[in-house]
Write a structure and sequence with these properties.
Radius of gyration: 15 Å
CATH topology: Glutaredoxin
CATH class: Alpha Beta
Oligomer: single chain
CATH architecture: 3-Layer(aba) Sandwich
Distance between the termini: 30 Å
Shape: globular
Mean pLDDT: 84
CATH superfamily: Glutaredoxin
Strand content: 15-25%
Number of strands: 9
Structural class: alpha+beta
Amino acid sequence: MSFPRSDSPAVSTLAPELDVLQWFNTDTAPTLASLRGRVVVLHAFQMLCPGCVSHGLPQAMKIHHAFSRQDVQVLGLHTVFEHHAAMAPHALQAFLHEYRIAFPVGVDRPLADGPVPSTMQTYALRGTPSLVVIDRQGVVRLNHFGLIDDLPLGALIGTLVAEQGRATALSSDAVVVDTAHRTGAPSCDAQQCAI
């Protein structure tokens, strides 16, 4: 299986730690360092993003239920770059309860100098939904903006799970999908919200 490759600085490098203000659905704040040895599927979303609610979050929940926690850890990242007042952590808590989202979800740390939060900037995410897949060695192997079909995503995760004993090259094995560049002001359609 192959995906188009990219020169994105966020792909084929060790994944930077997440800069999270608050965690939900976990007693202990997860770190990427503590999750080494597992494939990490990071789903960046906004609760008012149509594509996140209709496709991204249901897909993340399917992954959470389909794979062993010893092999794959799904993490949600509520990364708000618009409508900040409407998407505060207390509203997110109710959203997670109502949608029965059980995997850990962190609130991306807002920055004082603009609407785009910390982890979203660090990973060069272009909007929501975004999906980052990190292999067992902590290397970013997929950084995708927008909707992605279940079958190729499941195949990628299965391939990374099977790599348990193999060392991963930092550049030659990395994959990325959707290499278009960022556009102007934030906007949402039925599939995604772009910054």
